[in-house]
Structure formats: structure tokens, C-alpha cells
Amino acid sequence: MFTVDDIDETLESLRARGAELVGGVVQCKDAYRLCYIRGPEGLLIGLAQELG
Predict the structure, then answer these.
(1) Which helix (H) or strand (E) element contains residue 8?
(2) Domain 2-50 is in which class?
(3) Which terminus of the chain has a smaller tally of CB atoms within 10 A, N or C?
């Protein structure tokens, strides 16, 4: 799991490089937005954006 400042911006950048969103972006209360992506090599990576 990697912490990012802006999950939407990060997803846009990674999609341009061949990554695919797995499922969707979920929000955990008012604390985090989380998602998983699969990179072009097949690796699964978690992204987390702390809110507030």
C-alpha cells in the first residue's frame, strides 16, 4: 500500500502507463480513500489517500 496526495490524479497518471483500476475507489468514513490497481506486469498495488 502506498500513500498518495491525490488518488484521482495518481490514477490518471498510472492509467496512462498501462495500470488498470481493480474494482473501484472506496472511501472509509472521512479518513481515507483507497483502491487497488494492477500494473502492466500484473502486480497488484494499493493506493491510499488520507482525507482531512
Answers:
(1) helix 7-15
(2) alpha beta
(3) C
CA distance 40 to 52: 32
Tell me the backbone φ, ψ of residue 6, rounded to 5 degrees.
Answer: -140, 105
Instruction: Note the pTM of the prediction, 2 decimals.
Output: 0.89
**Measured between alpha carbons, how far is residue 18 from residues 11, 15, 30, 49 in Å?**
10, 5, 30, 21
Amino acid identity of 5? Answer: D
Structural domain spans, the chain = 2-50
DSSP, collapsed to helix, strand or coil, labels residue 28 as: strand
Chain position carrying cell 494499493:
46
